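Researcher: Structure for this, please.
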Amino acid sequence: MKDYLKYFIFRYVLLYFVLSFICLFIMPTTAFIIMTILVVLFTYYLKRKNRLYPHQFQIQLTIILIILVCLTIVSLLSQGYLSFQLWNYYYILYFPFALFLLLCSLTAHYQLMIFGPILLLFIQLVSLYVFSQAQIPIKKYIVKILCLVLLCTTSFYVYQTSPARKYSGGHGFDYMNGYSSTDLSPFYPYTEDSQLVELQEPSTFIIENEEDMPVLDGAEACYPVYSAIAKAVYKDIDQIEKAYSESEDYNYYNTNGKIVTFTNTSVGYTRLINGNIDMFFGAKPSKSQLAEAKEAGVEFEYTPIGQEAFVFFVNKDNPVSNLSTQQIKDIYHGDITNWQKVGGLNKDILAFQRPERSGSQAMMTYFMGDIPLKEPLQYEYISGMSGIISDTAQYNGEKDAIGYTFRYFLEGLHQEEDVKILSVDGVEPTTENIKNQTYPISTYLYCVTLKSNQKENVKKLKDYLLSSQGQYIIEKTGYCALN
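Model: Predicted structure, token format:
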């Protein structure tokens, strides 16, 4: 027992506490490499001084096994969620690595934070064996070594395949200053050879002066619509937005435009409530956005400008091609959890949701009615010095998954690959079925304004959206016109 205590204090606690001071000066990956080299050199130094003994290998192996048993248990119980309280107790075992763990946390080197110390201890174990090979009867420890490999593999596999890590793909907001999961640059008002729909005749409505142009914002899938409308109606909007994109204000205000702006549904509704924009294009707001408007003392006015379908999609290899509205509600309430119950394979259903303030999540809430949505799949990530952040996981190509969105978002902007859209109650979301509203989850594309906004050009632009030219742009973009 005395040998165990002495080894624990001097070869674990003090050794790694001193080595961790390296982390005050360099990045964690570099610190880890240097610490590894120093551990090997220190073990070699002990050999040269004849201070390596066979029982030290057994003590080192025991320390690693204790830590790995705890790591495996915590990984299984937490399902990989590092905000789980048990992780705090586990980190106590790593207290000599406190500076290393802190640096990894601050720089988002999450896997290195969990598995780095274990790897260092294992390298120390191997060094002990290499430098004392003639004295260590390795066959005596073969069972413990196999347990070590098994525990290490298990803990790493559980962590990597856990929901907290597995579903971190999907829409990562890589474009438009972090607001968009889609590359919308082909639809900028000033892009040469853009993909914007253009009229085949002069616009019947033109706004000449920049200060008279209503400021626009909207959902990702609506940007091609209102950008095309602005290109047709706002005189020289391409030059105005081009000049703004090259100015210092562009990145400072971070709205991806001066008049034709984009901050997605989550932020766009807040900007509408605050009077920063005049018109928002997209789905109806979520409950929290309605509450935000009520608290601000404003009221939304909804103008339907097009027709759209709310669709559900699965992997293209999934044998299920149709679901009833009740089956969908049962899946997202948690009553149906296996594809076999709806005519598919004996596989668990991964029912993905969208962030709470997104347009599609608001639509899903309306669709579910009084039936509550089950807790969504989530993943965790590190955001700078903010610590652990949980977010709603989103579809990322899982074969047994189901997701939802608006038809144009999926087909027009090609948001997901290798998926198929399900028919609902035996009806496919075709243009014809959307227009005659036989598709059961047909909905509208809205232009949303504040009732208090009485600007003349806001009213005129809404009238233009309902005119033959406005409906032409909406239809040709990929939505269904109202008539």
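Researcher: Any notable elements?
Model: The first helix runs from residue 2 to 19. The chain has a mean pLDDT of 89.
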